[in-house]
Amino acid sequence: MRDGQLNTRPYLDVTTRAHSEHHHIVAERTGRDLHAAVTADQIHAALHAQTHNAVPQHRADYNAVGGI
Prior knowledge:
By secondary structure, the protein is an all-alpha fold. The chain is built from three helices and no strands.
């Protein structure tokens, strides 16, 4: 799982996380459930972007905050 996250890191878009967090908070997810849902959405979007060689418009810089 961790290797997958690291390999898709260049395809992570900060807007994916923001939209996912909003969606799942509205759905009343909290704590670990919220974190897992947002992480799944980010991985799904990054894999899709990687498959289609799509560069994110607003690339996430997780190195600045200590990684994924």
